[in-house]
Design brief:
Layout (H helix, E strand, L loop, with lengths): L1 E5 L7 H17 L5 E6 L3 E4 L5 E4 L1 E2 L9 E4 L12 H10 L5 E5 L3 H6 L7 E2 L6 H7 L4 E2 L5 E4 L2 E4 L4 H14 L1 H10 L15 H4 L6 H12 L7 H7 L4 H12 L3 H19 L4 H7 L5 H11 L4 H8 L9
Parallel strand pairs: 1-2, 1-6, 2-5, 6-7, 7-11, 8-9
Antiparallel strand pairs: 3-4, 10-11
Helix pairs in contact: 1-5, 1-6, 5-6, 9-10, 11-13, 11-14
Length: 323
């Protein structure tokens, strides 16, 4: 299968080499080169990346005659900040009918959207660029909370490392979960970040607050999931009034205290479902849900599947013993 990755000037290297490393590792583990990578540029030769390093394009767009099974457009920090080169849009429009699957990593989605290929499609991108994308292309449905999406033959992913999540999903489509899991383990990746999971786990969100007091509250929530985390209780710990605490928390973290608590509990439940044999009811209790119905509702809301369905799909082959 020939995989083309389109890299434009200013590309972020991870968005090119990350997915290609996933495909390469799949071939190595299978013992045969199942994916043939092809880096494409506006011109053949060196492409200046955002880091200052240079990447070599195997082909210029105008000279790309090979049939492509899959085409991914890599993004970069400035992608979408300026009009996409017309030669790129024209080429994408021309090649779209001939490619079995189209996709974009992070802000590379702006090139596909500007070419008019995503009208009516459901896509994702980096959370910082989602609002910009939605405003610029109102005919595109933007899902800012997803790691990657598939809509028909169009695939999109969130930030740079999410391109590797997308590549793992493509490997799983081709060769099954077992090979994708081996690739993930070899590259020390998470095969199990599902498409419905928020790009920011509660642990990552805990790094976003600037005020030490809010960070302390977040860390306490993570360490005491089954405790009472009402706004009134958290506000007392922060020595603030409930109203002021709720306002400061939302400003610092980007979500309400209740949303953060639920994200933390779902995050912990997700890991237990993956790695432990603990019954779902026990997981609900440990993670601070009132009952299994509360866990189920939160899981459906944040992950898009029920806890039992999630465990069936993402559990480890050798679950860890219950501590």
């Amino acid at each position: 299968m020939r995989i083309g990755v389109l890299a434009l000037p200013g590309v972020q290297l991870l968005e090119v080499v990350g997915p290609l490393d996933v495909f390469s590792e799949a071939g190595r583990l299978l013992g045969r080169p199942v994916y043939e990578p092809l880096v494409l540029g506006i011109e053949q030769g060196p492409i200046a990346a955002s880091s200052g390093l240079r990447l070599m394009a195997d082909r210029a767009l105008s000279a790309t005659e090979e049939a492509l099974d899959t085409l991914l457009v890599a993004g970069g920090p400035e992608m979408g900040m300026h009009p996409i080169d017309s030669r790129v849009c024209e080429w994408l429009i021309q090649r779209a009918p001939t490619v079995r699957r189209f996709g974009a990593v992070c802000s590379g989605v702006f090139a596909l959207a500007e070419a008019g290929l995503l009208d009516g499609c459901r896509v994702t991108t980096h959370w910082q660029r989602a609002e910009q994308l939605a405003k610029a292309f109102p005919n595109v449905t933007v899902e800012p909370d997803l790691i990657w999406t598939r809509d028909g033959r169009f695939y999109t992913s969130a930030g740079g490392s999410a391109g590797m999540d997308l590549a793992l999903a493509l490997v799983e489509e081709h060769f099954g979960r077992e090979l994708a899991l081996k690739v993930a383990r070899t590259l020390v990746l998470f095969l199990k970040r599902p498409g419905g999971q928020s790009q920011f786990s509660a642990h990552l969100a805990a790094q976003m607050a600037e005020r030490t007091g809010i960070q302390d509250i977040q860390s306490w929530v993570l360490a005491n999931l089954a405790s009472d985390h009402s706004v009134a209780t958290l506000a007392r710990r922060a020595a603030m009034s409930p109203r002021h605490f709720a306002r400061v928390f939302k400003s610092e973290v980007g979500m309400t205290p209740a949303e953060y608590v639920e994200a933390a509990r779902v995050d912990a439940a997700r890991r237990m479902l993956e790695d432990q044999d603990r019954p779902v009811k026990g997981i609900a209790d440990v993670c601070g849900f009132y009952d299994t119905n509360g866990l189920r509702r939160a899981f459906l809301r944040r992950v898009g599947v029920s806890p039992s369905d999630y465990r069936q799909r993402f559990r480890s082959e050798t679950p860890r013993p219950i501590p």
